[in-house]
Amino acid sequence: KKTENQILVIFGASGDLTARKLVPSLFNLFISGHLPENFVVLGASRSDMTDTAFRKKVVTESTYLEKKLEKLDKEKIEAFSNKFFYEDLGGSYDTDYTRLRKRVEDLKNKYNTSGNIIYYLSTPPTLYETIAQRLADAGMNTQNNGWKRLIVEKPFGYSLETAKQLNKGLQQFFKEHQIYRIDHYLGKETVQNLLVTRFANSIFEPLWNRNYIHHVEITNAESVGVEKRGGYYDKSGALRDMFQNHLLQIVSLVVMEPPISDAPEDIRNEKVKAIKSIRVMKSEEELYENTIRAQYVASTIDGDKVKGYREEEGVDANSTTETFAAVKFFVDNWRWKDVPFYVRTAKRMPTKVTEVVIHFKTPHHQIFKDSGMENRDNKLIIRIQPDEGILIKFGVKVPGQGFKVERANLDFYYSSLAETYVMEAYERLILDAMQGDATLYARADEVEAAWEFVDPILDYWEKGKDVRMYGYAAGVWGPENSHDLIDGIGEWRNPGP
Ligand code: BG6
User: Fold this and answer.
1) Is residue 449 within 8 Å of residue 280, measured between CB atoms?
2) Residue 191 and residue 435: Cα distance in Å, rounded?
3) Is position 359 annotated as part of the catalytic site?
């Protein structure tokens, strides 16, 4: 696809995300020849900085580029960093953008970038609407001399109500098709491959329903704690930070019906339908039965003392924010009726891993009794990270007399495609936005549908009766009680490191 000439304006450019994610992604796009011929980046923030200082801050001092610097010729780095410019907003985002507009126009004329502009909002979300409004006030949202797109980072709201407000607020100044809500999990190859696994093969989809699938399990584990983001995390928690967005996005791709084509709106329409068919839990009994939250407590991992969540910097000493969340739910539609889904996400688990496990039913009639195969030994495991791949577990006959059955694996790992360059999630998503492809971005109704499901859980956890906050030692697979959720069905699959 062609990438038209354009300007990328980054609000909150002096922040961490620019140096950590955006600059490295842009750099890779530059090296691989994906950036348009005429292209500049204009950083905008409150603080005062020269272009040179900005380049130094985000480009030259980017740890990512620093690592690469030695291997790369200086000219390349310089050519790349020469694309970066900076304009301060005079101490506040809520200000007149006339000067910013003038700067954008000067750059456009000087570098022949045309009037196409992406505004990337990498500021606290409380500023999103203000920035959109100020852009509109300055006439910077009009599309008559080139397209304008707005990329916003998560969180998209804090609850259903605030998400709706945010969507409405932004839509006053930008049309929905101009708004790109980034969810970096959709930029992961293995997440996109869920679509290909299901809809480009004829061996999986016929089984992909309640007749053959017993239950679905999704685990997202991180070994790190809240790191330096205690202040943010304590107001968010695992359900808002991971589940409402990344995990429900994965769920939507597992659950969705085949789209009529791979066009962005065809795919997004099916995803919204999928999220809307998740049964919203309403009664306290349901919420009590089907949700578990917990916090990690101090422990020793490999001989190192590790702090408990409540001791982390920026975290309230009496915090009731969860660092572990597990939810069981059903999807009320033709395909999934009565198939339970178990989804959990947590910090400070034994390892970092994200995977989807499709547990197939046991064959209706067991011929090979005492065969050594347990119930439901057919599994399809979609390993999202690390060791990205697809694993199939099935039974084979042990050579010799009788019919002893043993488990075998048919495993595919992405690493075996050594020749293929796999783009980083951000790299892929930024390039898509540059090309106007919104397939891998979340639409307003999708985000709201996800909140519809999550809101009652958060509400219950905050105010409900009998809600418990369990503890788990940092470095284990969550609280003991999380097994209760999946009891009677089996056990959580805890993949090794
Ligand atoms: C972010 C969350 O969206 O995703 C973080 O805010 C989390 O808390 C991160 O660590 C995980 O992303 P990944 O790509 O490392 O799985």
Assistant:
1) no
2) 20
3) no
In which residue are the tokens 């991971």 written? 242
Ligand 1 atom at minimal distance to the Cα of residue 220? 16
**End-to-end C-alpha distance for the chain, whole angstroms:** 38
Q: What is the spatial distance between Cα 166 and Cα 132, in angstroms, rounded to a whole number?
A: 11
- The span from the CA of 28 to the CA of 10, in Å, is 18
Rounded Cα–Cα distance for residues 313 and 326 (Å): 25
Q: Bin 106: left if φ > 0, else alpha if -120 < ψ < 50, else beta.
A: alpha
Residue nearest to atom 9 of ligand 1 (CA): 242
Rg of the chain on CA atoms, in Å = 24
Enumerate the known binding-site residues for substrate. Answer: 184, 188, 222, 241, 347, 352
State pLDDT tens for residues 275-326: 999 999 999 999 999 999 999 999 998 889 999 999 999 999 999 999 999 9
Nearest CA to ligand 1 atom 6: 241
C-beta of residue 388 within 8 angstroms of C-beta of residue 190: yes
Which are the contacts of 230, defined by CB distance < 8 A and separation ≥ 6? Answer: 312, 313, 314, 315
| Spacing, Cα 227 to ligand 1 middle (Å) | 11
| pLDDT (0 to 100) of residue 69 | 61
Q: How far from the centroid of its chain's Cα atoms is residue 172's Cα?
A: 26
**What is the 347 CA–ligand 1 centroid distance (Å)?**
10
Backbone dihedral angles phi then psi of residue 344, each to the nearest 5 degrees: -140, 150
Instruction: Produce one character per residue of 320-357: b if its CB has 16 or more CB atoms within 10 Å, e if not.
Output: ebbbbbbbbbbbebebbeebbbbbbbbbbbbeebbbbb
How far, in Å, are 348, 351, 437, 477 from residue 496 at the CA level? 14, 7, 37, 11
Question: Around Cβ 179, how many Cβ atoms within 10 Å?
Answer: 21
What whole-number distance in Å separates Cα of residue 19 and Cα of residue 32?
A: 19
Q: ∠190-359-196 over CA atoms, to 5°?
A: 30
How many Å apart are CA 114 and CA 37, to the nearest integer?
Answer: 11
Residue among 34, 246, 364, 365 flagged as catalytic: 246
* Ligand 1 surroundings by CB, under 6 angstroms: 222, 241
Cα separation, 355 vs 345, in Å, equals 11
- Name the CA dihedral angle for 306, 309, 314, 319, rounded to a multiple of 10 degrees: -160
Q: Kindly indicate the confidence band of residue 428, based on its pLDDT and cuts at 50, 70 and 90.
A: very high
Q: Which residues are annotated as a binding site for NADP(+)?
A: 46, 154
* Rounded Cα distance, 60 and 386, in Å: 29
Ligand 1 atom closest to 185 (CA) = 14
pLDDT digits (tens, 9 = 90+) for 160-206: 999 999 999 999 999 999 999 999 999 999 999 999 999 999 999 99
Whether the bond between 386 and the residue before it is cis, its omega within 30 degrees of 0, is yes
Indicate which residue's Cα is closest to atom 2 of ligand 1. 241
